[in-house]
Structure formats: C-alpha cells, structure tokens
Amino acid sequence: MRIIIILLLAFVYSAISAQYTIETVPNIKLVNNSYISDPDDYIKSDTELKIDSLCKLVEDSVKAQIAVVVLNSIGNAIPNDFGTRLFNHWGIGNASTDNGLLILLVMDIRRVEFITGDGTEGVMPDALCYKIQQNKMVPSFKLGDYDSGLLDGVAASAEVLLKNEIYSPPVVKPYKPYQYNDDIHHESTFTIVLLFYSTFIIVPFTLLFLLLLFFTLFTRDYYRKYKCIKLFELNIFRILIPIPFLVVHILVLRLIEYWRNAPRFSAKTGALMKRMSEKEDDKYLKPGQIKEELVKSIDYDVWVGQDEKDIVILPYVKWFTGFSKCPKCKHKTYQLDYNKTTLSPTYSRSGRGEKKYSCKNCGHSVLRTYTIAKLTQSSTSSSSYSGGSSGGSWGGGSSSGGGAGSSW
Fold this sequence. Notes:
Distance between the termini: 34 Å
Low-confidence stretches: 3-16, 165-173, 378-389
Shape: elongated
Number of strands: 11
Structural class: alpha+beta
C-alpha cells in the first residue's frame, strides 16, 4: 500500500514540479567548472563526469566551449528561443570567435535543441546538428536511456569541433527547419499526459479493483470480502483518480456497509448470530482491544451465537490514525508523543533531537535521541557566482539562434 501511495505522490509531484527560467538555470561552470547543468538529476554522475571530460578536452584543444543543460520543464517557452537566450545570457564560447555550442534537453516535452554560436555554424550547420540528434541521441532517448543518448551526442559534437570538419549532409530529402507551433505543443503535451494518466494510473487500478471484486464472488464470508477490497476505501483514489474512482468509492462504501451489517450464521451450529452493540461488546473484548476502540485505531464487531462461547470478533482497522502496534503488548495503541530539538545545530557543530513514543494501553514508553546534521552553506552563496578558486567561466560568446531541434 505504501508503494502505491508513493507512486501516486511521485506522479503528482512530477506534474507540478517547478519550471525553469533563464535566471534560475544553475550555471555550474561558474561554481565548479562543470560543463553540464542537470538540477533535476536525470543523468547519472559517472555519465556527467564523462561528458565533462569531453567538453574540457574540446576547450583545452580548440578553445571551443560546449554547455549541456538538462531541465525538467521550461513552461510554455519555445525551446530554441529559450536556448538562444540562455546561450547569450551565459556567453558560451570565445568572445572573438563565438565558437560555442549549447545542447539543451527539455524532458517534459521530450525535446533536444542544439544552439550554435555564430562562429560554430560553419563547422556545425543546422543539417549536421539534426543528423547527430537523429542518429546518436533520439534512438536512445526513445528507449529512456538518456545517459547513452546524451553522451553519444556530446561525443559526436566534440569530434566535429576537434577535427574542425563538416560531416557530409544526408543524401535524403532536403532538411526542413523545425517550425515550432505553440498550439500543437500544448495539444501534444496534453495528449502525452492523458495517455500516461490513462495507461499507468486509471487502467491498472481499475483492473486491480475488478480483479479483487471478482475474488469476492468466490467466498461466502463477508469479512473476507471486505478484506479483499478495503484498499479502495481510501479517499486518495477518488481525489487523484476521480474518473472512474468516484463511482468506485461510493460502490465500495456501500458494499462494506452491507457486508458488515449482513446477518451472520454460526460456523459451529449454523444458527443466526447476534451483533453486540458498542456497549455490549466490551465484555467480550480484551482491555487492549477496548483501548484500541477508545483511541479509534481499530473498531471491533462482536457476533455472539446461541451459545455464549460461540463468539466471532472482527477487527476493522482504520487508516492513518497515528497509532501503530506496540512492541510490548502488540495492540495498536503506540504513538509518537513528541519530537523536539534539544540542541540546535550550527555551522560548526551538529545538533540533537529527541522523540518519545508511548503506549496508551500498557504504558510502555521509549525515548530516542538522534543527531541533527550541522548547517551548511549553499553552493550559490559560498561561490557567489563570480568565479572562485574551484569555478570557471564562459568566454563571452554569442548566438543568433542557429542549430536544430528534435523530439522523441
């Protein structure tokens, strides 16, 4: 159950994650002399090291600069325009030769853009940029292998800049520059989100519900029926998946109410059993079970047959009550009393915290202390973006928007 909730929350987080502007894209070159900015960690660290090595080789050998940027989203901005403005904002490439190259990946719209400096266009014309994308990057991106695709694309671009040669243009039909249509972009993004939502959210959970509902047909025990579909009692389904789970939620609640209140017959005698009221059932429950009802972590139904010893006790566990099973008495009456900081951390030392757990039934309590990490300066404030001892700088180059883009 926790895995399902985590996956749903991850999906919601990805849908509302922050969008980058020109000013908010981390300029890592100024911090630690890195050529790749990947603030959302799409690319593995070892792949980033390989990309950095290739870009450094290019700069050291032919003084050209390659910047690689991987962003989750740029909102409604046009990728080529965004990339050109970012290129000029950073000043990629040498100021006198404009020999820079920006490779930009925008993940939410599945788009890769090459932005070439004014001096790089002669070495890497638009058709060549497009060919590198189609041959070296897009096939891997379609498989979800962003590390290989990006590394291969950077390697191919670095080879061109190091050799200072132009690949032969494709012998296929003439290259037609990509015409970005904002309306089509919105429509395609909506279609992709809807397809993902239907394929990975609606369909799997609907099939799971139907499968569990089907299993209830093979048991006569109403409590077992309830256990099969109790998962869909959660409100999170009708909130995150209103269609069709608003209807499913209502159906589940009605089924649970019916199964819980339906007449029960003794497994021993076959006689009709009587359900005790909340006041009457206490004499059949253990003190720990009574305490669980008082703290509202579990609600018990007690059914009694004609023989007073013919008793059935059914627990209905409630979701998200803040109580867990006590390690001593094993009843769901164990909770966190408080969580407080006893020693605040500073930049020079760690802090300490304290948590207290106790059981409302048996009185068992546990006091736990933990260490709070000392405070650290953020990378932006410590480096000040003005070129520290560990940072580098771009060369002041500019671009008029040359290059090409591909979708996958």
